[in-house]
Structures
1.
Amino acid sequence: MTHWVSRLRAGIALLKPREFALAAAPCPYCGPSLFVRLQREETGVRCTRCAASAVHLALGWALRDQVTHLGECDACELSARGPLVAFLRRSARSLATSEYFADVAPGGLRDGIRCEDVQRLSYADASFDLVTHTEVFEHVPDDARAFAELVRVLRPGGVTIFTVPMHEGELTVERARLRDGALEHVHPPVYHTDPLRDGAGILAFRDYGRDILARLRDAGFAEADLTTPTQRIPWTVPRAVVVARKPA
Ligand SMILES: [Zn+2]
């Protein structure tokens, strides 16, 4: 099945005809564009040109707000396709992409796509000026180790810009953990799905609270903040985006 056919099917699955709407607005990735709302939920909003979701749009606008010299940045994105990847590929000096496959060693390839585990990246120290990721870290068993890996592969003064699902409260709720390789559920398991991707859901190890900023500083980042993109995204309240910078 080709990618656009699966995308169309996913779109039809999301469509609630009474909530359908169109709006002209700029997209951080493609410029002037037309947006579609398939349903009132945040997951129902898409750019019709690049198919960016509300999460990707928030990340894209935060990236444009925060990184003024993208053309001088060596970038790393923890996925291998989609509008953010396409934008970074044409805008950054270089781009490393990857996906996580549980059964492929870090640095190995599957169907031409590099495999990386953010808890043990195969990239050399100080490889990147920018690392981006959307909705990844809630699925990482040892996120402290993974945040430390981001610090390691960033250059001094380098920045990571990312999204995770966050609740309103202060404290992160650990839902599950790995102990000696065995999965333990502290709370009933929650699985996240991406409606534009095929496949089963992936376990959420935690629901982040605002203490994610302290976790980032504990891992070695000098600054960590939540930013709300300055540009409006049609119909949605913009998602908070995390920005964390390695000491210069
Ligand atoms: Zn777009």
2.
Amino acid sequence: MSTSATFDPLEFRKALGTFATGVTIITTRADDGTPLGLTVNSFNSVSLDPPLVLWSLANSALSFDAFRKAGHWAVHVLAADQEELSARFARRGEDKFGGLDLEQGIGGVPLLKGCAARFQCRTASQYQGGDHLIFIGEVLAFDRDETAPLVFHGGRYAHATRRDPAGIKPRSAYLAGSFGEDFLGYLLGRSHFRFFAQIRPYLAEAGLSDEEFYVLASLTLKPQMSAEDLAIGMQGVLDEQSQAAVQALVDRGLARIVTPAPSTAGTAYELSDDGRNLALRLIAQAKSVESQVLERLGHADAVVIKSLLNRLLAVIDPQAAVLWGEPPR
Ligand SMILES: Cc1cc2nc3c(=O)[nH]c(=O)nc-3n(C[C@H](O)[C@H](O)[C@H](O)COP(=O)(O)O)c2cc1C
């Protein structure tokens, strides 16, 4: 246990960082009309009646004087997809508003769009708190959106997600004794099969096997794809079947062999117009299945699960991220 006499400042910061918070951007307008703002996670609610909120501003901030004098400011609670905006407003000085689509709030305060919530405030009081100035604001107006919030924890951006309902228990006592229903392989495998089962009727209608669909969809990623690229891309997913699947697509006139391949040494493939149209139709149908599933899950958790699966994929299949290179423009 550290006592104040022996504080290591870095350790102190780390200990404070264990308190997970949302992320906000607070904006105001300086006397000369300049829009100002900074990223802040010291925001908190104070009182419901009257409606009061607080946050603290470092004495060293470039915007310090303007905020100290400001009669009005706005708190923007950031959404999960606003990490870049957060980083932009955490940079010192700079024109942070360039290129942003703004609204005009009470007292001429610049308002950002696409946030989880916004609180337009009037400065109610200020208190010096060590190397920060604490602002208490009376909320004059607010709005909010059903969107996942951005979270900050341990010095990093994070996601917020609902916890499993406490009552989740293995449905089968037998499984509880074996590898269990929370075995990652079971969860991923079952999710994949159930998800894909909803897409398969569209493939059947188009007369495509799963393998042919994977290859067809992969061929949309580049104008032309070498046999080698395709084999690498399908490695661990299709193995030897990719050759048979691409041949089946060629036989049906959905793809063709490009000879000689301009950018490659060996054989390359490209989609025919029919192939591209079919691929785009099937991808749209697969996406509509995705939206139905994600709608039931809720937007906030949809963002989280995708982020986690991307991280899992980066651990389990680091090649996947680099395989296909830049998408065609
Ligand atoms: C997640 C996060 C939270 C922050 N919270 C605060 C805060 O509560 N108060 C503060 O003064 N600075 C905070 N900062 C730092 C400011 O955003 C940063 O110093 C900014 O450059 C100040 O802008 P200015 O110097 O242009 O006024 C935070 C930064 C990040 C990334």
